[in-house]
Amino acid sequence: MAAPPLLTLQNIRLTxxxxxxxxxxxxxxxxxxxxxxxGRNGSGKSTLLKIAAKQLESDSGLRFFQPDATxxxxxxxxxxxxxxxxxxxxxxxLGPSDDHWKAQYLLNExxxxxxxxxxxxxxxxxxxxxxxxxxxxxxxxxxxxxPTNHLDLPAIEWLEKYINGMRSALVIIxxxxxxxENLTRATVWLDRxxxxxxxxxxxxxxxxxxEVLEQEEKERxxxxxxxxxxxxxxxxxxxxxxxxxxxRMAELGExxxxxxxxxxxxxxxxxxxxxxxxxxxxxxxxxxxxxxxxDRTIVRDFSARIMRGDRLGIVGANGxxxxxxxxxxxxxxxxxxxxxxxxxxxxxxxxxxxxxxxKDGWTLKEALTNGGGDYVEINGAKKHFAGYMxxxxxxxxxxxxxxxxxxGGERGRLALARILSLPSNLLVxxxPTNDLDLETLDLLQExxxxxxxxxxxxxxxxxFLDRVATSVLVSEGGGRWQxxxxxxxxxxxxxxxxxxxxPQLTSAAKAMRPLAEAAPVAPVSSAARRKLSFKEKHxxxxxxxxxxxxxxxxxxxxxxxxxxxxxxxxKPRFDKLSAAIGxxxxxxxxxxxxxxxxxxxxxxxxx
Length: 607
Hints:
Layout: E1 7-16, E2 19-29, E3 34-38, H1 45-52, E4 60-65, E5 71-74, H2 86-91, H3 101-109, H4 123-135, E6 141-145, H5 153-164, E7 169-173, H6 177-183, E8 186-191, E9 194-198, H7 205-236, H8 238-243, H9 246-261, E10 282-293, E11 296-307, E12 311-315, H10 322-329, E13 337-342, E14 348-351, H11 364-369, E15 375-378, E16 381-384, H12 385-391, H13 408-420, E17 426-430, H14 438-450, E18 454-458, H15 462-468, E19 471-477, E20 480-485, H16 488-495, H17 507-518, H18 534-561, H19 566-569, H20 571-606
Parallel strand pairs: 3-7, 3-8, 5-6, 6-7, 12-18, 12-19, 14-17, 17-18
Antiparallel strand pairs: 1-2, 1-4, 8-9, 10-11, 10-13, 15-16, 19-20
């Protein structure tokens, strides 16, 4: 018998500005379930999650959660006000029985110390602090609204691995396909105020969605034909001419009402890039370029040739120097050494990550027309701005709306509309997928595949890189950059590890490790010494207890296996015990090695 759900939403209705946003939406979350909550921008996903988290009241409907269940909610815009330090904010989310060391541990894993002032955090740092706050208690239900926003690839891959090891039930809203595919086992689709559930992970969702919409289109076609038949009877039927059968007239009225009041599928963004004349075959050539700021080297001795039609993806941790590298490749920044040659007839269009080309004083119309006029020119053809607005899902009444009042998704669409209207044969896109829904990402991908020019793309979206990039340039640390053929997955296969991972040693390298460890080590100056991290201190304190537990377990198994008749009497039990003692011995050896390495490090740092 299945366990009862921890959280249930039934028949949730909510109207905003006389428009029904949620119209009978439902959500059920059982123990350990992993749900993707998907839908178009503006469909009400975040609103439904806020209702589930009791951050917002619905107009009607039922919200129920098990009284002893714990729920944590990650908002898109976390509020850290009222706390002196980040650690205090994270600890405030812990319950009486929770492990307080986890707050500091998670902050360290996410690149924070804990003593930071919440008021001075960047968007990415605030997101990391909020993640630590909801992860530390390991709740029964974890509601995550765009958890990967503002995170770089190492942080995304760490977060994915950490969540995968949790026991919590999950409901995730995300535009990161790979993140959803790797973590979810069921999908809830919020469409036109209603929800549909697929008991498969996000990987199966899009094919299922297309089938549902295709069937819906067939039903609408049937309904339209039925209306035509009824109207034909009213006009030409004998009974219709004589007395206008009241019942059939009423049925016709109901059919028309159905069609008129049916909530239509929201239209798709129409993406088309305005392309300049063909560039020369060579687009950019960099020869042994380097760039440093003070003692920090951003790019060291880098050479590359970007040819017409290339689609180069650039990945790396935040602060690795991706933007600096792009600025040098496009001629906006001079390298310290080496030189960059820009090819002939290059027309550059750039989408920056912060969307700085959108001035807050502008209205939406001014942003599209560059401050004046009523027309936008796309590939030599003039188009009225109102029609161009419609292509990007903006309504006519938004023409005078200030840019700074737009949502993140709307700003993303507007920035794309602006950049795609500029004639170009070299397109530089810095995080173009931020705040875009999955359908718009699909269309952007298709447009970029049809783009005749050259593309340089910075992105933390692994799936998007796989779909668009023909090669990937990765920061290897220390200012070194390495290019790999193919997309992100191809880079993983060639490199052996991700952007935030560590190299996987070959058998030869493993064999050499003891020799390297035995080699004399140069003394470390006191200035270069560091302190043990919180994670290392905690491991030093807890590993001895863990080793004692493993030794006790090993002795218990050995005692049971000492029975000479066990093998003949219960072979499956004997096999199970054999596997268990093998695992216990391996875990014990690993714990002893880790403790010994940490103890030697402690003695060296303190001595």
